[in-house]
Amino acid sequence: MSDSEDTLSLSSQRHLSQVNPSSPSARDTPVVGRRVVRDVNWRDAETFRLLQIKRDIAEESCRSRFNTNLWAQVSQRMHDSGFQRTAYQCITRWRRLVQRYHELKREYRNSPQQVRTWPYYQEMEEQMEAAERRANLPRRSATGRRRG
């Protein structure tokens, strides 16, 4: 593993360092009955935390694709960090980040001089490359033998 895989990008670390999980913005979400009322919009701190959690779980599970159980873990870790997000919200946010990443990647390819200003670009690029590497690793069969 390279150093870049072990740590978040500098911009991610900077945004995460500004988050205090016990702060009112992270903890005080309105509750109606049993249902948590949550903003539709994601703040940068939430998004960077989602990216960090997704990276951690992907590395722990050695999976390039996530299933429902893994997204439930992401949601639980978001909750543990003070962000009330459901698995569905996390999946939706991730898909939109991936979509935007691919759009920007095409734009940057067409005009390389364009400055990459999207705050999540570096982290998304690292995660996409790591997912590609994990997808290309040989897998073990049920008998423990490597499959191509």
From TrEMBL:
InterPro entries: Myb_DNA-bind_4 (IPR044822), SANT/Myb (IPR001005)
Any Pfam family the entry gives: Myb_DNA-bind_4
UniProt xrefs under PANTHER family: HEAT SHOCK 70 KDA PROTEIN 14 (PTHR47595), MYB_SANT-LIKE DNA-BINDING DOMAIN-CONTAINING PROTEIN (PTHR47595:SF1)
Signal peptide: none
Annotated protein name in UniProt: Myb-like domain-containing protein
Species annotation: Dispira parvispora
Domain Myb-like: 34-98
Region of interest: Disordered: 1-31, 129-148
PROSITE patterns registered for this protein in UniProt: MYB_LIKE (PS50090)
Segments of skewed composition (Polar residues): 7-26
Spans traversing the lipid bilayer: none
